[in-house]
Specification:
heterodimer, A: mainly alpha, Histone, subunit A, two-stranded antiparallel sheet, 35% helix, B: alpha/beta, Amidase signature (AS) enzymes, 11-stranded mixed sheet, 11 strands
Chain lengths: 95, 479
């Protein structure tokens, strides 16, 4: 499967990532060689094989519905300079 | 300098030939003396001696250790090797750190690593590459390169690392130390910054297998906060170390011995096999037919999980925040552009591609099916053999800069190590000799939850040989 510059732009948008022109062209050629490498998987016959999502093939455990964690908002908000009155500030969203 | 093992430090503390504080200061002094040339630590300011280590009568109380900067440790800067987290201070401890803290161990500092653990040479770190103590112009491997270099150079007796595709075993091999990746789920992943959640596992870089056994007993175990951690009982690993090896059968996969390994490395592997024969191990040729698809499978699964895990870094609640944006969309994009390095961006883009509409079945689902086949290969092999052996890497430490512009060639570094992460089985690397004064490692792989066999086998080898005790030239004249 081949990939071109417009694909890279689309992927950047999907993953919310800005790349400058030079990065885009470097990535394009590197992505092509990575895709060529992973293309090898197509030769494997996997007809009836169950996909493996997890190494221990276990089911997700559920815990009792009891409160074990408490709100530590002030502590966690120490990791930004852009918190005010318990809120996080971001650029204006609505005019 | 004398590079002490954890076992030796325990004895020194017990017979009072050195105080806990003297031992701590010794390592801090070595870090001050050597870190400029090796760059193994990102931060060492936190955890001043007086404020650390719960008083505990545990057997590892007072033992200092280094922590890969991917683990949260309360109150410490935790960067994950990234500009994105350069100002991030952990509000809590990772479970493995908490487990060790409760036993009275003391953190020496946070070690350098490839950014978000993505890399095999430590060159993707925002904080500069780590230099291999055996040759400062070469890589110590990655992504746990700082932890490996710190232990190899005697700046820490033991260190925590993580292994997603070989990130403990490959740097251990390239720096001449012992590196253990436990079974997936053996140690909690809570507070360990996520890269690829179905592959990530915490482990240990140490001088000896005995030291790894001592630490793993205290690190491992079920954690309510990690739903993928295992409820399997944690054995007393140290009690298995001296078990007799007679009658154990080792599989040698023909895919690991296909002639592609340079003869100078092959000779070291052969010598170690002879040593193991003397210890009573029996060898058998086996085949893991799908293992050749490990690297392509990994480079679909790992970037896919990475692109999803790293979506959380938007710069709103923590992490790098750009001043160059005026609307929300460009705010996100600019924060991530400035905060992430090249390798991380490339994997996010690759992962987004293999998960995107129209490609999911062809790439991601296909890779999960091939992953199942690789896992089956291991399960089948372990019906016939107790463990599997082979080289850890294809070559000893390569020059810094040598592979940095060619991702596919860099990815091929992990050709022998990746399959254990895909299957979830535990594996260890230990040094088996030198080529041109650079160490080389042997890898041993065991069935799920058989870490005690890896530690037993390696310990018996290390009782008969002294490759793991070799110290790089740079350590002379320190202390």
């Amino acid at each position: 499967m081949s990939i071109d510059k417009s694909d890279i732009e689309h992927l950047c948008n999907l993953s919310k990532l800005n790349l400058d022109e030079e990065e885009q062209s470097v990535f394009l050629s590197q992505m092509q060689s990575i895709l060529k490498m992973i293309e090898e998987l197509q030769e494997v016959d996997t007809g009836e094989i169950e996909p493996m999502a997890h190494p221990l093939q276990m089911t997700q455990r559920l815990r009792n519905d009891e409160v074990t964690e408490f709100n530590e908002r002030d502590k966690f908000q120490k990791n930004t300079d852009f918190a005010e009155d318990g809120f996080y500030k971001v650029p204006k969203v609505i005019d | 300098m004398e590079r002490h093992t954890v076992k030796q430090l325990q004895n020194m503390i017990k017979d009072q030939s050195a105080s806990v504080e003297e031992i701590y200061r010794l390592y801090k002094d070595r870090i001050s003396a050597m870190n400029d040339s090796i760059n193994a630590f990102i931060s060492t300011e936190a955890n001043e001696f007086s404020s650390v280590g719960d008083q505990s009568d545990s057997e590892i109380s007072g033992v200092p250790y280094a922590v890969k900067d991917i683990f949260c440790s309360e109150g410490d800067q935790t960067t994950c090797g990234s500009k994105m987290l350069s100002d991030f201070v952990s509000p809590y401890d990772a479970t493995v750190v908490k487990n060790l803290r409760q036993k009275g161990t003391i953190i020496l500092g946070k070690t350098n690593m490839d950014e978000f653990a993505m890399g095999s040479s430590n060159e993707t770190s925002f904080y500069g590459n780590v230099n291999n103590p055996w040759d400062l112009e070469r890589t110590p491997g990655g992504s746990s390169g700082g932890s490996a270099a710190a232990v190899a150079a005697g700046m820490a007796p033991i260190a925590l690392g993580t292994d997603t595709g070989g990130s403990i075993r490959q740097p251990a091999a390239l720096t001449g130390i012992t590196g253990l990746k436990p079974t997936y789920g053996r140690c909690s992943r809570f507070g360990m910054i996520a890269f690829a959640s179905s592959l990530d596992q915490a482990g240990i870089l140490s001088i000896s297998a005995e030291d790894a056994a001592i630490f793993l007993e205290h690190m491992a175990g079920f954690d309510q906060k990690d739903s993928t951690s295992s409820m399997e009982t944690v054995p007393k690993y140290t009690e298995f170390l001296n078990n007799d090896l007679k009658g154990k059968v080792v599989g040698l996969p023909k895919e690991f011995f296909d002639g592609s390994l340079d003869s100078k490395y092959q000779d070291l592997v052969t010598d170690s096999i002879h040593e193991y024969e003397k210890l009573g191990l029996k060898f058998k040729d086996i085949s893991l037919p799908n293992i050749k698809y490990s690297v392509p499978t990994y480079y679909v699964v790992a970037p896919a999980e990475c692109s999803s895990n790293l979506a959380r870094y938007d710069g709103v609640r923590f992490g790098h925040r750009s001043t160059n944006s005026d609307d929300l969309d460009s705010f996100y994009k600019q924060n991530r552009k400035e905060g992430f390095g090249q390798e991380v961006k490339r994997r996010i883009i690759t992962g987004t591609y293999v998960l995107s509409a129209g490609y999911y079945d062809a790439y991601y689902l296909k890779a999960q099916k091939v992953r199942q086949l690789i896992n089956q290969d291991f399960l089948n092999a372990f019906k016939e053999v107790d463990v599997i052996m082979g080289p850890t890497t294809q070559q000893s430490a390569f020059k810094l800069g040598e592979k940095v512009d060619d991702p596919v060639s860099m990815y091929m570094n992990d050709i022998y190590t990746i399959s254990s992460n895909l299957s979830g089985v535990p594996a260890i690397s230990h040094p088996v000799g030198f080529v041109d004064n650079l160490p080389f490692g042997l890898q041993i792989i065991a069935p799920h939850f058989k870490e005690q066999d890896l530690l037993n086998i390696t310990h018996r080898y290390q009782m008969e040989t002294d490759w793991h005790l070799q110290t790089p030239e740079i350590c002379r004249g320190i202390d």
